[in-house]
Design brief:
Blueprint: H1 11-38, E1 42-44, H2 46-59, H3 64-76, H4 87-90, H5 92-107, H6 110-116, H7 124-130, H8 134-149, H9 151-175, E2 197-198, H10 207-212, E3 226-227, H11 228-238, E4 242-244, H12 262-270, H13 272-297, H14 299-305, H15 321-331, H16 335-348, H17 358-373, H18 378-387
Parallel strand pairs: 2-3
Antiparallel strand pairs: 1-4
Helix pairs in contact: 1-2, 1-3, 1-9, 2-8, 3-6, 5-9, 8-9, 13-14, 13-16, 13-18, 17-18
């Protein structure tokens, strides 16, 4: 009686069912809470939205407004003291194992809900069922599990269902996703892609891609990346149950213009992460050439540069003070590398100067291209030409 219910499954069958149920919860979080509610990257048919709201009530007890508000604040205050759950502030161990407590603390702040929780569901069901009776939803899910699978298996399955999101989303994504992994895009935060195949956590593994293009319904950017959440969204779209509003822009190119114009400026700003990714390759090529040259001419300077490659494309604001000092000392050994590194900072400033007029920004871009082409540095000259090719 304790171990059998209406569905008398073997242990491996119970494991498969549990993983299947938790995967539905993951899909609900990434599609409904994250991409639909927090970022408005897609619209969902009311039937799909209500299913996800009901399922999240049964398996997590989370409120839509709280989740969206906390996540929006995370993007607005990323890696600062006001970030609700940054491992750069709280440490990886605390976010990984206690991220759910950081989330709950922030979700209880009225100021956060008022400022960042706008536009979330506020109908009768949300006020009287999904919000006020969240615990009843979990109890109902537990009762369903017990009837279908038995008392002990049912309660164990409920425990896994309840713990799944706090660990994988609040812990792994918010923790490891801002601490370890690879980066396609040089964002101003520490976000990383944990793994290129976004299956286990619904595509949320591609966290650096998400921070680069926050309003994109698709989280995969490279040919080798797979976002299972995007696959589900495309299926919903084909069934007429979803409408995709925005995905990450794909850069377009034309023949290089003699002089950058307003269209070039707009394209460079729109595709800024692609610009920085291509600049990173130029910087790495410059580094490799300089290191090879210095090994022959100045071995001591070459030793100072060795190991600096991993810091060249990092935002200085993400570095510790000792790292900035060591990098500056190493760059002082190579005028060429220092020039290329410094001009990267100047290029990035184009889209950070929100108070500058279009005319001022265009003048800065044109001046940057002139100085790059007059530098005598092959990598800068080639990159300036490619910059004038953005359309």
């Amino acid at each position: 009686m304790l171990f059998s219910g209406v569905l008398d499954l073997p242990w491996w069958g119970l494991v498969i069912v549990t993983l299947g149920l938790t995967h539905v919860t993951i899909a609900a979080v990434t599609i409904f809470l994250h991409r639909h509610q927090a970022h408005r990257a897609l619209d969902l048919h009311p039937l799909v939205s209500h299913f996800f709201r009901l399922w999240l009530c049964l398996t997590t007890g989370m409120e839509t407004k709280e989740w969206a508000a906390v996540h929006r604040k995370h993007h607005a205050k990323c890696e600062t003291a006001d970030d609700p759950h940054s491992p750069q502030i709280y440490g990886l161990k605390r976010v990984l194992w206690g991220g759910v407590f950081l989330y709950v603390r922030e979700a209880h702040k009225k100021e956060t809900l008022q400022r960042y929780g706008h536009g979330t569901p506020d109908d009768w069901l949300e006020r009287n069922v999904y919000t006020s009776r969240a615990k009843i939803g979990l109890m109902l899910m537990g009762l369903i599990n017990i009837v279908l699978f038995g008392v002990v298996p049912g309660l164990l399955m409920l425990a896994v269902q309840i713990a799944w999101i706090p660990f994988w989303a609040a812990g792994v994504i918010n923790g490891i996703g801002h601490y370890w992994g690879y980066r396609n895009w040089s964002c101003a935060d520490a976000s990383t892609n944990i793994f290129p195949l976004g299956i286990l956590i619904g595509g949320e593994e591609l966290h650096n891609n998400h921070h680069a293009f926050g309003s994109s319904a698709k989280l995969s950017n490279r040919w080798y990346e797979f976002d299972i959440g995007w696959m589900y969204i495309r299926i919903l779209e084909l069934l007429g149950l979803a409408q995709i509003k925005k995905i990450a822009p794909r850069p377009r190119f034309t023949q290089a213009k003699p002089v950058a114009d307003f269209d070039t400026l707009q394209a460079v700003i729109s595709y800024r992460y692609d610009v920085l990714a291509k600049y990173a390759k130029s910087l790495k090529n410059t580094y490799a050439e300089e290191l090879k040259l210095l090994r022959r001419q100045a071995p001591q300077d070459a030793r100072s540069l060795r190991g600096m490659k991993r810091w060249l494309n990092r935002d200085e604001r993400q570095m510790r003070e000792e790292e900035r000092v060591r990098l500056a000392a190493a760059l002082a050994r190579s005028e060429k590398l220092s020039k290329v590194y410094g001009m990267r900072r100047e290029l990035a400033a184009l889209w950070e100067r929100s108070n500058a007029s279009r005319e001022q920004l265009l003048n800065q871009l044109q001046d940057w291209c002139r100085r790059a082409e007059a530098s005598g540095i092959r990598q800068l000259q080639e990159f300036s030409q490619s910059l004038r090719s953005y359309a």
